[in-house]
Specification:
Number of strands: 8
CATH class of one domain: Mainly Beta
CATH topology of one domain: Jelly Rolls
Order of helices and strands: HEEEEEEHEEHHHHHH
Strand content: 25-35%
CATH architecture of one domain: Sandwich
Radius of gyration: 17 Å
């Protein structure tokens, strides 16, 4: 089962937002989702006044609070653009007008996020910090070129100092 991105784009409209623009704020209802045409978005939250990046979306990805999109509650994180970005902005109510498509979309998005969550759990439980960094080098090297290192460090679950040490040892 694959999400029909082209249909979602057709429901939405192309918009542009600048770097650092907040698409979604933690705890505030959002009635939209986006498909990244160009740019990057990160999902972050705070715990004990420390900022943590839980996820980074790339071009072609669906961006948005799945809690709001699926009617499960308020966003648990803030979503910020890391670069100037072009996105297809889709209002959830417009997706719901086609109830069969919306039900299929909900099933597909839940399947997708379940698999991504399982992979992310294994990523943190089975790989050392060095191995997580090497995984990014091998599978998503564009993140290391486009995302500030302090964001990469929290995404990898380590301090900026630990990431610097790992990078130094590799050179």
């Amino acid at each position: 089962m694959k999400i029909d991105i082209e249909k979602l784009k057709g429901i939405g409209k192309l918009v542009s937002y600048p770097k650092n623009f907040l698409l979604v704020k933690e705890g505030r209802f959002s009635n939209k989702l986006w498909i990244l045409q160009t740019g990057l978005a990160r999902y972050f939250y705070y715990k004990e006044e420390k900022e943590f990046t839980g996820w980074i979306d790339l071009e072609g990805d669906i961006v948005g609070s799945m809690f709001c999109t699926l009617g499960l509650g308020l966003p648990r994180e803030t979503i910020q653009l890391i670069e100037d970005s072009d996105l297809y902005e889709v209002v959830i109510d417009d997706i719901q007008k086609d109830s069969a498509f919306y039900m299929e979309f909900k099933t597909q998005i839940l399947e997708y996020y379940f698999i991504e969550l399982e992979n992310r759990i294994k990523f943190f439980q089975t790989l050392s910090g060095k191995e997580r960094y090497e995984y990014i080098l091998d599978h998503k090297p564009e993140l290391l070129q486009r995302v500030p290192l302090h964001i990469i460090s929290t995404y990898l679950g380590m301090t900026p100092e630990s990431l610097s040490r790992i990078r130094r040892l590799r050179s």
